[in-house]
Amino acid sequence: MHQPPSEARSRLPDFPVAGVASDHPIALVRSNSLPTLVARELERMIVAGDLPAGAKLNETDIALRLGVSRGPVREAFRALEESGLVRLEKNRGVFVRQVTFAEADEIYELRAVLDEHAGRRAAQRATAADIRDLLALVDDMERAAGCSDADTYHQVNLAFHDRVVALAGNAKLLALYRRLVNELNLYRRAALDAAGTLPVSVSEHRAIVERIAAGQAAAAGRLMHEHVMGSRDRARELAAREPVDRPAHRAAAGAALAAGRKSR
Asked: Cα–Cα distance between 98 and 44 in angstroms, integer?
């Protein structure tokens, strides 16, 4: 016998909606706007290299690909421009940003200053629970390095530094830092993929956590600064070895590398 709709609805199980996992699609839609979800997915694709630097982003194509209307995509583009990942050109469209060697070099220097300050502040503010969180991230990096999983390492590395900067307790600093990291991600990925880099990076991160745990603010700050500048040196070395079809870029990187060595 066919049941009336009202009766059928009354017999539906009472699911605990509030208990839905945070990564469940329903929970994501409830806690985030659609433009935010679109921006987050586009950011993931850009950082992963699925949308390469310089690529033109077509609003209609993106909407079809993600199964949404064009409005949320348009809003997501504006958010990504604010975060430094895309550029909007009038009458031309939206493009994934291309970060030059000179820009990346400047970002590394500024990041080193911010990381040093964050390391100092983290050593003064971190709780035992914060230290456990940081050590867990370093352990995750070590596992990724052990199986040469550069993709996972890259994501955990970003999470580690973001956590340290968050511990500084300065919202303006964190917002500026995240924008710089977004821009640098468009350039620096190859530096982490270089042979032998991951184990060295793990050691540096573990030493940083040890200083933070010990409350050694100056030492923690110094190690954070040295870690970022070491990343810059690796990026310079890689840029200096780029193919001959980019001579100007390679020459600039080589000159910067030589200048860096003379200053030591």
From this structure: 16
Instruction: Give residue 196's domain range.
Output: 101-262
> What is the maximum span of the chain, computed from C-alpha positions, in angstroms?
88
141 and 189 assigned to the same domain: yes
DSSP classification of residue 157: H
CB 249 within 8 Å of CB 239: yes
| pLDDT tens digits along 132-188 | 999 999 999 999 999 988 889 988 999 999 999 999 999 999 999 998 998 888 776
- Amino acid of residue 36: T
Q: Which of 167, 165, 133, 139 is nearest to 152 (CA)?
A: 139
Contacts of 120 (CB under 8 A, 6+ apart): 217, 218, 220, 221
213-257, pLDDT tens digit by residue? Answer: 999 999 999 999 999 999 898 888 877 776 544 444 444 444 444
Do 232 and 137 belong to one domain? Answer: yes
Q: Is the pTM of this model over 0.90?
A: no
Domain final residue pick, 51, 69, 96 = 96
